[in-house]
Amino acid sequence: MQNYGRYISLIALISVACTRTPYRPESVDQAMARITPKDREANLVPDLEVKKNFSTGRAISSVSKTEQKPKADLSDQSNKRLYFLSLLFQYNEIKKFSKNPAPKIEVCPNFHTYLVDNKELVDKSTLDQLLKISYDTKNIERFENFPEFYLPLTKESVTPKVIDVFRENHESTLDDLVARAIDIHINKTYGELTDLCETGSSDNFFAYENLLVFNNTKGGLKASAENVRILLKTTLFANGALLASFKSLRNRRELANVTSNQYFDEIIDRMGVYWVKEYYRGITKRE
User: Fold this and answer.
1) In terms of Cα–Cα distance, which of 259, 266, 268 is closest to 78?
2) Taking the mean position of all CA atoms in its chain, how far away is CA 4?
3) What's the predicted TM-score (pTM) here?
4) Were both Cys, which of 23, 93, 235, 263 would link to 85 (CB 3.0–4.6 Å)?
5) What are the residues facing 152 on neighbouring strands?
6) Is residue 172 packed enough to be buried (19+ CB in 10 Å), middle (13-18) or exposed (0-12)?
7) Which among 285, 277, 286 has a CA at the least distance from the CA of 63?
8) Per-residue pLDDT reduced to its tens digit, 198-222
9) What's 102's DSSP letter?
């Protein structure tokens, strides 16, 4: 009788297995959704608009030039270390555009050695490097060339965006709205860096890891507007777009290395998405 019960249970398990739907490859939206931060305090990635006139032909032709540039050997660095150092570098660059002093990362148990090795970068004062942000709205032809216009004005959501409030309330200037949004973005990024230091990870790092897996299964993301949208869903690539825009505000066309970040360059190399630099250059040149 006991064996009969086991036999019935086995039949039931086989029946359930047979009725399951066939496995289907996971799309990037499904993959990213699995690790979308649920915590209201998480560093939500801004919902940036993708440039409508992105030329994949020009992006592909620029790959060989990018590959020829000498760079530091970071091949021995783990993905997590590269993510942390890239985000730290971006944080220190973005906070130069804030009117308010931003906090420093001073204690970082999980990346202590790397924080010490980059002490000069971390300790560098931003007060004497304040870079003014100002926009002439009459001469703006394509708002999507200014990713900072799509920054949220709240920590808890990706909306409302700067551009939404500006269009609805003409009493608010773009200069003031962007300044507010940058401060919010800086505070969120600082929060993520703190999480990385204290726990060794963050929700956005998991999203980045998921993107690496997806990129590998697809044999590398090719140059396209859709794949730009995918990259911009992650913190590092969204910050890359913001910094590309800020370069124009500095009246400096640093097109030789649009990222100015050796750690982020290594990530781009590992993923084989060299073409994203051409996308960033288009933002810098307002094309």
Assistant:
1) 266
2) 58
3) 0.81
4) 263
5) 161
6) middle
7) 277
8) 999 999 999 999 999 999 888 889 9
9) P
